[in-house]
Each structure stands twice: as C-alpha cells, then as structure tokens.
Amino acid sequence: MQIFKLARKNIFRQFHIYFLYLLNMSFSVMVYYSFLTMMDYPELEKITSSQSITTGLQLGSGIILLFLVVFMISANHFFMNQRHKEFGLYTVLGMRKSQIIQLLFLEMMYLSGTSLVIGLLLGGVFSKLFGLILGKAMLLNLKLPFYLSLVALKKVSRDFMLVFLFIFFQNGFRLYRTSLVTLFKRNQPSTPSTRYPLFLLLIGVGGISLLAYGYWQASHFTSYMTALGGVDTGLLKGSFFILISCVVGTYFLFYGGLPILLIGLKKVKSIYYKDLHMITISRLYVQLKENARMLATIGVLAGTSFSLIGGTTGLSDFLLQNAKARVPVSYMIDQQSSESFKKKLTEKKIDYTAKSIEVKQVGSYWEKELFRKQDNYIGPSSFIRESDYQSVKKYLLFSLPSVKLENGETIYLDQKNELLIEGAKTGEKIRLSQTLPNFSVKEKVEDKLGGQGGIRYNQPTFILTDEDWEKLPRTHSYGYDMIQLKHSSQETLANQLYHDQIPEVLYGQIENYYVQNNQLIGAQEPERNVESEASISQSVPEGYGYLTRKNSMSYYDEWQEARHKFGLITYVAVFLGITFLLAIGSIIMLKQLSQADEDRKRYQWLAKIGASQAQIKQTIYQQNRLIFFLPITIALSHAYFALQAFSHLSDISQSPFIFIVIAFLLLLYILFYRWTSAVYYQLVVG
To answer: What is d(CA 245, CA 242) in angstroms, rounded to the nearest whole number?
Structure first.
C-alpha cells in the first residue's frame, strides 16, 4: 500500500519530468492510432481494391511503428537516467531492489495508461483530419464522419502493451544489475578535456575524407557505377560503397572532427573570450563527447529519411509528369475502335482533332551500348513515317523534338531514362530481317509520342522517311488515332462516352529472332486478341518472346491513377517525415532538458558575476541550436548528394516539390528547437 502512495507522490512531486515522458508517449499513441484508423475508414476502404493504397499504408504503418518504438525506448532511457540518484537514495533508505522495481512498474502503469487514453482521444480527433488530408491529396471527394476504429484500437493497445512490457523488463534488468555506487555516479557532470590527442585528429581527417569520397562518387555516380562493372553489379556496389563511406564518415566526424574543431576554437582568443562563447564552446565539447554516437546516429537516420522523402516525393511528382508523357493527347485509340467513338463525339457536339499514326513492325538487330557494355537488341522494332510524326506535333500536350531525315537515315526514339545515362549509345546501323535495307542512325531523341507499353508495343521505335517506310512490308502493322479535345469543359462528358463506347481489349504477339552468321533469322506471329498477359505467357514456347498492347488509353484515366499514387506516396512520405523529425527532435529535447538541473547552478553563477539575462538566454539558444542543427545539417548534406546520385538515373530529384516538402519539415523542426530552448531557459532561470 505504501508503494502505491509513493508512486502517486513521485508523479505529482516531479511532474515536470513525468510530463515530458507522458507527452512523448501520448504523441506516439496518437500518431500510430491516427494512421491505423485512417487505413480502416470505410470510405477509404471502398477505393483500396482498385488502387495500390492498402500496401502503401501498411508499409507506412510498419515504418511508423518502428520509428515510434525506437523513440519510446530512447525517451525512456533519458527518463531513467534522470532518476538514478533517486533510486540510489531509496536503496540507502532500506528499500530492496525488488520493491524499487515494483514502484517503477506502478509508475509506468499510471503513465502508460494515462498516455494511452490521451493518445487515443487525440488520435480520434486527428485521424479524421489526416484522412481528409489524404483524400484531398488523392483528389477523392470523401466525407469522413467521426469514426471509432475497433481494429485500430485493438492493434494500438496490443502493440503499445508489448512495447510497455519490453521497456519495463529492460528497466528492471538494468536496475537489478546496477550497483549503488553506480547509481550515484551516473549523472555526475563531465569535465571537458583540453588535450589535443592525435587519434582524434586522425579520426576527424578520416571522417572528412570518407564524406568527401562518398559525396564525390555520388555526384559522378554513373561513371563510378560504370567503373565498378556497369548496371549489373556497379549499381549495387557503388551504392554500398557510398553508403558505408558516408555512414562511417559521419561517426568519425562527430567522434573526432567536431571535437577537434572546438579545441581549435579554444585557441582563437578573439572568439573564445568573446561574450559567453567559452561557456558555449566548453559545454558543446562536453555534449559532443557524451553524445557523439547519438548525434551521429541521428545524422545518418535523418539523412536516410530526407533521402527517402526526397526520392518518394520526387517519384510521385514524376508519376504526374509521366501520365502526360504516356498519353500526350486526350485519347489514343486503336483504329478498329476509334470510329464509333469519334462518331459519338460528333453527335454530342464535342470539338476535337484527330491524327492517325500507322506503325509497321519488322525484325531488327542493332548494337546498343550501356555503361560501356554491349547490350545488343534482337527482336521486332516499330517504324513510323516522318510525315505522321510531324503531323501530330502541334496537337500534343508538349512539343516534340524536331527531326529531318534523308533516305537511308533513321532516328531512334529513346526512352528518357536512357537519355539521362552517360554512355548509353546506339550503333551506326540498324539491320533488318529478310532482304530489307539497313539504315544508319542519324541521332536519337526522346520518345514523346506516348503510348509506349500501352497502345504501342514496348519495343524500340524508329522514324523513317515516307519513301523508306513504304518499302517495309505491312505483314505486321497496326494503326491508332490520337484524339485531342479542344475544350476542357467537355472532358467529363467525353470521358463518360469513352468508357461507354470503348471496350477493353488486349492484343498480343509471339516472336522468335536470333542472329546466326551475322544474319538476323526468325519471325513473329500475327497480332491476336488475348484474354490477359498471363494467358499468352503460358502459351509461349520455350525460347520465344511475347509482347502485349492495349486497344486504347485515356489521359484523364492515366492522370487520375497517377494522382492517386501521387497523393498516397506524398502523404505517407510527409507523415513519416513529420513523425521522424518530431521523434528525433523529442530525443534531443529530452537529452537537453534532462541537463537543465545540472546547468542551473552554472548559469546562476554567471548571473552573480555580472552576466545579463539576455546573454544567458543567447548562450542557451546558441548551445541548443548547435546540438539541434549539427546532425540535421549533416543529414541534409547526405540527402542532397543522394538525390544527386538519383538524378544520374532519372530526373525525379529535380522536382521542386521535393524542396517544398523538406522546407516544410525543417520549419516544423525549427519551431521544435525554439520551443525546447524556451522551456530550457525557463527551467534554468526559474
């Protein structure tokens, strides 16, 4: 009974310590419950069957749980460190360790139960807000009422209880194995060393060298990847070596580089003796010495988080741009199906323009080099007329590259990702099957005709002069219309007609080409209707290949699907980013505030010898600013060069949306720093 009373008294007597712990535990429950409730909303479940939302949200919930578990364990670690002397006093007063562990269990039960209730209540409020934000991001017209998710409630309670038990047993085990002397020594202030050890200098130089190596190779990633063996092995090796060099370099920088820098600043009297810089530098040196591993870990994890956020948000923005690239007009419809649709558009007085493109397929063999390795292509290629290419230029959503050919020349329409890769070269000649002439490749331009892998077969496409194109056989050919609406106000009606008039049809063909004695041999079967890609893949003989294409594509459908994916990816990325930044901000906050009692006497002494409150406040803010932003600065540097490496393989890292998201997260982090510094100042001067 006395232990129950003691547990309650402890909580009320040291409420400022317990409050921070309670706040962080409640935040963890709120975030996790909000995310799980959003996944369980009936209105959102209606669209998960047609969108890849469930998988993305489940992955996001798993990552959030992992973040929060690490965060809760870290918060508990600082909470326990604050109470070692208290536990030592209990031991001196005659309490057995089993009784102290029982007391700790009761306190954690109070705190955990309270934080669970508070977190669930806040989660119930914010889950609706988060769900509405997700719906807006995905352009879904959702009306979300207040919803109590029993599934989320059970899962949060179960997971939270498991984490609570783990933390309790961890605390009990540590307390049981800790001696009385250790309990009283644990939080004694450290004395900064003024030595200039050689190994610190070596570690610091090594860290800077490793970071410089990793950043340089990331900036020249394609060349680095090529030197390591090309795309097959170079991609994995290059990424691994850069990752290891940056991670090890970060730890070396915090263990050796930054302490050496501070020791050097002590030698500069004009800086060290200005205002209260000696207090800031000395205290920062001690904190780096004590927390180098924590700060380096935050730098690495935050850098990884920023890189993932940048990559995913860039990818989501890329999906929207890709929708326009895949369907650069309102509709692309096979000529066998387009006549009835155009007739309906005319009947409904919907203004449009239509241009036809005819494609011939011919077996081809041409040399291709990628990452300085031969990657020759053998199989059917698509050929279109130069006049068809020129005729559709002014009707697309963006301009096509200009081309001009002579007979015997061809232009290769390359995919954008290969155009971005250094060393992606094509051979000078394209060899065709049978007795057909060869063509010299004049240049390669980006394929902006759209439909690749959709209404067009996913195979190399070339432009020929009309005269050369007519010489090719029509054995394997198909045509499609590119239809562009003139007025955006008619899009809704036109899209409804599209879905009513155009059935979904899948075409497929089987081919078998090979080179023998420097001659292209083989053939391809005529195009036919297939039920699905799986059905044709099962009927392909061994050694043969197959291709499929759709009979139609709609820009509005492609854009809507991309917008859904964009909203999901962006939402999960930003949610994870906010969760992670608040978690690491809270860890640093707990670490800083846990030292407030120790620092109070130091600042009171400064006030007695004449330091003004403004100077003390400035010193506190400077100290917290450096601790908060040193790891984040390193993290941003890691993320920048990671995105530089991504930009060698695609252009997703150039999206301005990445910088908007990261700027928003940094703003939240700055507010967190300001709030922590203000609380720290009040604890010290109070």
So the answer is: 5
Query: How far from 661 is each of 272, 592, 654, CA to CA, in Å?
Result: 38, 27, 13
Alpha-carbon distances, residue 246 vs 635, 637, 638 (angstroms): 10, 10, 8
Give the tens place of pLDDT for each residue, 6-28.
666 666 666 666 777 777 778 77
Q: Indicate yes or no: pTM above 0.85.
A: no
Q: Measure the CA–CA gap between 274 and 291, rounded to whole angstroms.
A: 26
Q: Roughly how many angstroms between the first and final C-alpha of the chain, as a whole number?
A: 35
pLDDT in tens, 199-227: 777 888 888 888 898 888 888 777 776 67
Q: Are 401 and 448 in contact (CB under 8 A)?
A: yes
Question: Where are the domains positioned within the chain?
Answer: 1-187, 189-330+556-686, 352-485+506-550
Question: pLDDT class for 358, splitting at 50, 70, 90?
Answer: very high
> What pLDDT is recorded for position 420?
45
Residue type, position 386, single letter: E
- Return d(Cα 389, Cα 449) in angstroms, integer: 8
Q: In whole angstroms, what is the distance from residue 405 CA to residue 442 CA?
A: 8
DSSP assignment of 306-353 equals: HHHHHHHHHHHHHHHHHHHHH--SSEEEEHHHHHHHHHHHHHTT--EE
Q: What is the mean pLDDT of the chain?
A: 76
Single-letter amino acid, residue 68: L
The dihedral built from the CA positions of residue 637, 640, 644 and 650, taken in this order, carries a sign that is: positive
Q: What is the largest CA-CA distance in the chain?
A: 102
Nearest Cα neighbor of 81 from 163, 193, 182 is 182
